[in-house]
Specification:
With 275 residues, the protein is an alpha/beta fold. The protein is built from 12 helices and 8 strands. An 8-stranded mixed sheet has the order 1-2-4-3-5-6-7-8, with helices on both faces. The chain is globular, with a radius of gyration of 17 Å.
């Protein structure tokens, strides 16, 4: 599913796409990913739902102007504005990684309304950030000066570490592509440099205020955001539900695509109560 539409917002170009017919579903990606990670799932769900994909500003096919902040605060505002632009009435939202913090901030701080929210291996609770992520954050200006070939090698190794079963070459190529070249390399280090736990600290005390159903899905072998965060998040959100996916790492979409697709389909199409 392509993101070939554009939403102009505060000087940024936000790439998005829509496909299918039925109740609205919105898919949110994280970092250093883009909507491409969700695209096969969007294609499958479009048989029964109107599926919306988007690339956060600074990611994927969206604009990467170095003058535009790309922190989680901006992304939450951008998502709320995009939902308003689409005119959606309480869609169901599925979010992965950073997309979890973005969706939570949009709902808790910017008035976005959902009928339900599914959080998949998300950034939501402190602490977060892998050792490499932290190293880059503290030395982003130095890393941005790396020769392109060295940057590509480090980038591919970093992305590979998010999977548990090992990534296919074509999947790795797809995930790395937006961050190559001069613009992509600068954007990659810029978004890490602007990462700040204060953006999740602001919403953590308000998680209990969520009034819509929340379902949490987590890969048991996630080394980027360990599974203990899933249990903590489940405890912090009253009436939430939790499903663990064995043998899946942070890139659960690639480690366990069938299990994740089945989980999302069950969540989106709940069976009526027996009797």
């Amino acid at each position: 599913m392509n993101v070939d539409e554009v939403f102009e917002w505060r000087g940024r170009r936000i790439a998005w796409g829509r496909r299918g017919e039925g109740p609205p579903v919105v898919l949110c990606h994280g970092t250093p990913w883009s909507s491409r990670l969700w695209s096969p799932f969007a294609d499958a769900l479009a048989r029964d739902f109107t599926v919306h994909l988007w690339d956060m500003p600074g990611y994927g096919a969206s604009s990467k102007d170095p003058e535009h902040p790309v922190d989680l605060g901006v992304q939450g505002e951008a998502f709320a504005a995009l939902l308003d632009h689409w005119g959606l009435d309480r869609p169901r939202v599925i979010a992965h990684d950073y997309g979890g913090a973005v969706a939570l901030r949009a709902a808790l701080l910017h008035g976005a309304g959902y009928s339900a929210l599914c959080l998949v291996d998300v950034v939501a609770l402190r602490p977060w950030g892998s050792p490499f992520f932290t190293l880059v954050k503290e030395n982003a200006e130095v890393f941005a000066l790396l020769p392109d070939a060295v940057h590509e090698g480090a980038l591919r190794a970093y992305i590979s570490g998010a999977g548990h079963r090992g990534l296919r070459d074509d999947d790795l190529d797809t995930l790395a592509a937006p961050w190559l070249g001069g613009e992509g390399k600068a954007a990659f280090y810029r978004q890490i440099a602007q990462a700040d736990e204060r953006f999740t600290e602001q919403v953590e005390p308000r998680l209990a205020d969520l009034s819509f159903p929340v379902h949490i899905v987590w890969g048991t072998e996630d080394t980027w955001i360990p599974v203990d965060r899933a249990h903590r998040l489940h405890a912090a959100i009253p009436h939430s539900t939790l499903s663990l996916v064995p043998g899946a790492g942070h890139l659960i979409q690639l480690d366990a695509p069938v299990a994740l697709a089945d989980e999302l389909r069950r969540w989106l199409s709940p069976r009526p109560p027996a009797g």
